[in-house]
């Protein structure tokens, strides 16, 4: 995440983080899809053709929770595939049963 000003150069404004622990993550925050890993922040001056600009950057590492995807995506998709195979195990003359599976 970057915070910077395009309208004001370093002659007008300079951004600073407020101490070494300026970026903190609340322990009570939980995400269903991800867990939050390491994070750090830096402050930098970038040079463009229009001048020098102050920029604050915060970097976060997210780890994908595989359990969520197993329950929400992989398991239901696999179940649909297995149910579609049931028609191959039914007797060829059991037309009504095959039609009932397709509905």
TrEMBL record:
It is found in: Cell membrane; Membrane. Residues 73-102 form the Neurotransmitter-gated ion-channel transmembrane domain. The lineage of its organism: Eukaryota, Metazoa, Ecdysozoa, Nematoda, Chromadorea. The keyword DNA-binding does not apply. The chain crosses the membrane at residues 66-90. Its main location: membrane. This is Neurotransmitter-gated ion-channel transmembrane domain-containing protein. GO terms for cellular component: plasma membrane. PANTHER family: NEUROTRANSMITTER GATED ION CHANNEL. Keywords: Cell membrane, Ion channel, Ion transport, Membrane, Transmembrane, Transmembrane helix, Transport. GO terms for molecular function: extracellular ligand-gated monoatomic ion channel activity; transmembrane signaling receptor activity. It is a multi-pass membrane protein. InterPro entries: GABAA/Glycine_rcpt, Neur_chan_lig-bd_sf, Neur_channel, Neuro-gated_channel_TM_sf, Neuro_actylchol_rec, Neurotrans-gated_channel_TM.
